[in-house]
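Hi R.,

As promised, here are both runs. First protein below:
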Amino acid sequence: MNFVIIFITIMLNNLIENKLGYSYNVFSDPFDIKLLLINIALYIIIYSALCFSYSKIKLIYSK
């Protein structure tokens, strides 16, 4: 199930970046620590929220 959560995280991250007009690619753009930290934090926040939601939904449906 982690593969699905990671896939959804990447899709949501790209959607949020497009909606905000923000894009940073660590491999092709010049190095900027602030943009890198924002990008990593966004991935962590989305992934954590999805894992938390999945665990709560799994508990509800397992009953």
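And here is the second one, sequence first, then its structure tokens:
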Amino acid sequence: MNRILCALSLSVLLASASAAANFTEVCGALSDGAAVRVALLDGTTREGRVAGWDGDRLKLIQQDGTAASCVEGDASALWLRERRTAGGVKAGALTGGIAGILGMAGLVILFNAMDDDGIDDRAAVTMMLGLTGTGAGIGALVGGVTGSSLPKWELLWARPDWPADGGGSAASRPLRTGGVELLLGSGTGDGDGWPGRDGLGVGLRWRSELSPRWTAALEYAYCDAREPALPGPDGGYWYTSDAACHLLGALLQANLTTGAVRPYVVGSLGGYWWREDFLGGGLGGGVEADFGPNVAGRLEYRRHGNIQRLAEADPTLASVMAGVTLAW
């Protein structure tokens, strides 16, 4: 009996030593900034970005900017958050490319039906390549941002007695990977130095948290942005009747600090449908603040312009938006 007990004790000790060695190897291989989740023996869970490993303690920076650490003996399981960016880019590029081919085929059929001469083969091939490339590029951008916002946790290490269902509770400060956002505010058109008139602005965004300081987002925005057309009577102005400005594009946000309140600068690029259709861009800044683990708010100012004709004085658009984000 004593021999059996000794053998069982030795097996447990060897298993524990093997688990500890594996944990050390895994933590030593993690790069700074990697997003990880650690389940602890007390049943709690921590999520954060790696801020160093000294051979005994794994240091983390949590979502709200506070520091945390995990001693080797307190951990029961460790995950690494992987992004689905590559898969999203591939799927988006394939979908966009197919859509471009089908769209071009439809245009060729339409033109041939409307005109006996139709489109010559060389022009059709050129247009098809261009539309396919454009569709693939836009699809890759949309797929990449969408895929990077959807987390996939990979289990790197667990103790032999760790339960298969994962155990532990949800992290008190979960890392944010992405989110959806609704914004409301106003937009003002401006042209030739004449004042514009404020109108309702609405925005929708799909966000991807790339790091504590960098965020990418896909956005759609609408502004009832009336720009002045001609001076009117009594010192007033005649405003354009076609006021709707639609924006569809992408933006990149750079946080100046981390923590619960984050001032930031933002730049954007996209298609604008206003008095004319054009490729435009925007620059601005704002402040973002956390209201809870999964809720944040923002106040943002941006100025938009037509980048296709930088040398000309085109009407510009200024927008002021306040929004709320539901993050995951």
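A quick note on the second one: The radius of gyration is 27 Å. Let me know what you think.

Best,
J.
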